[in-house]
Amino acid sequence: VDLVDFAAWFLPRVDRAVKEYEPDATTTIYGGEYVHYDEVLCTMVFGLRNAGVYLEFFVDTPRGSGLIDAATSVWADEAKRRLASGLDCAKAVRQWCRGERTDLPDRMEEARCPPVLWFDQLRATLGRCGCTVWHLAPEEQAPLLSLGHGSDWGHVWGIVSDNVDWAVVRGLKLVPLSCFDLEGDLGPWPTEGSEVLLGWPEVSGLKVRFTCADLLAEHLRLGHPPREDDIQQHSGKGKGRGPVGYGRWPFKWWNDQVLVELAMLCGTDATTPLIQKHKLYAQLNLQVGADPVDSISRWLRNQLYSNKLRWRDLHLEALSPVLTDLASKDREFALALKCSRSVYVQRPGEVKSVQAEIARLKRENSDKMVAVFNAEQHDLPDACSLSVRSAAYASRVYLDVMFEDVSRHGAALAHQLLADFRRILYLLLRRTSVHEHGVAGEQRSSIQRTLIDLEPAAGTIPALQAIQRWPFLQRWVFFRKLVEHNLLQCEAQADLQTVAGNDAAACDGTHGKQEKQQQHQLGVETVVWDAYKAARDSATKPPRLEFGFLGAVMEYFVSLNLRSEQPLIREHEFDSILA
User: Fold this and answer.
1) Tens digit of pLDDT for each residue in 121-171?
2) Cα angle 336-355-273, degrees, rounded to a multiple of 5
3) Any residues with CB less than 8 A from the CB of 263 and at least 6 apart, and which?
4) pTM beyond 0.90, yes or no
5) How many Cα neighbours within 13 Å face the side chain of 173?
6) Which of 211, 154, 153, 142 has the alpha carbon at shortest distance from 180?
């Protein structure tokens, strides 16, 4: 199960069910109900196990840092589209909560606008349920992960995801999230004759629909379908072999490998920008109607029969002189075709060679790479968030729009409020610099790139591998000092404002002001590390005995807001932070 797609499908369902008995609808705009997320997900996992269905979750490589993204050039435009749609969704939800509109967006899950701590909560819940969340390496970016019989994933029945690329790979079954729970067995139960929820049901079964390369190739008639008289003539013959696919013909007549060629003509991550660049459909006189896949597949069949080609040997370049000429003259187009074919037959070695060639071409043309592939192996803990993995793989982080990121009289965005946390994590990874891409805080309408220079702070704190070997109490003290840092920072800002307002400061007052400014300019890593060294040798109570620290955590997140409206993170969400 793709955890990111699953969360986009699962979390809105829980929020809508919770609102039946919480009509104020604050659960959507203030980050969701983590208690209900935990309860429903535990019930679902254990119920499906009892019914004989075992879910294994994986997290794809963070976008912009995988091998496929590095071998293509469309992720920058896709990031802009996702951020724009997520921001529109967040604003619409905010207006709905205020009563300024009566409806919510039809497909909120498409906006990829999750609560702030969704990944931390779902990972913690699945960990308690005994489910391992697998993180795919950059060279395993979907759909490059091999699930053949000889692989570590040979026991998997199918992939639950909204990434349609899985359906083009031969031998895999793809279950879209819209087809994951056909009869609503995983939804809440209302009491009879009432809209009040009785609770989350015990699952006794699960019905899904799936698709695969064979079904798609047969449906699109990528081959010579048998005639009706041939079907009647062969009925009842043979050694009892049943029909293949939908029809009654006992033999496979379609060619699922042609599905890859059709996908490239429809547009893959690699070919879509070149199709648009060369206006390929206009050159081919291809009229794309209301159903583009059907129109393009009919054109493909007509060209194949007109040129007297064989289905089993079909390549896109042979369908038209326009394609032949383009592949021979445009090196980037030829590499895009090679990349797409290598992806769908799951050959990461060939994709790496394409990525290296594209990088060389861009260097010659002085173009910038929109994604970075780093083959270096990273030993990261399972609890690392997606942004940490993106920083480790490519030194780039794409910050998602959250439901909290809406117009609030100039209030800070969610990712700005947690900037100190991320800076410490980047230093643990030993990065010299990290590029963060997100919605600008002032406009909330365009992507802003921020360069975080970490080279001056290199070596301030130990590396992640060293801290992992620390005893738990030492790690707990370090975490506590990081939380307490924000309180010190707010106090320093208040002191600076007081000193700055005193124009007639004496010499000692001016010296004090300079000292305060120097302290304020210190990075979070210096302040936290100095505080940790001062406290590490003192007697420290175990976390379970430090009840007062919950108050410190509450004060920390409340102070992060510094706004007149309600807090960004509410009390019931602190359990996720501590987890």
Assistant:
1) 898 899 889 988 888 888 888 898 888 777 778 888 899 999 999 999 988
2) 35
3) 168, 340, 344
4) no
5) 11
6) 211
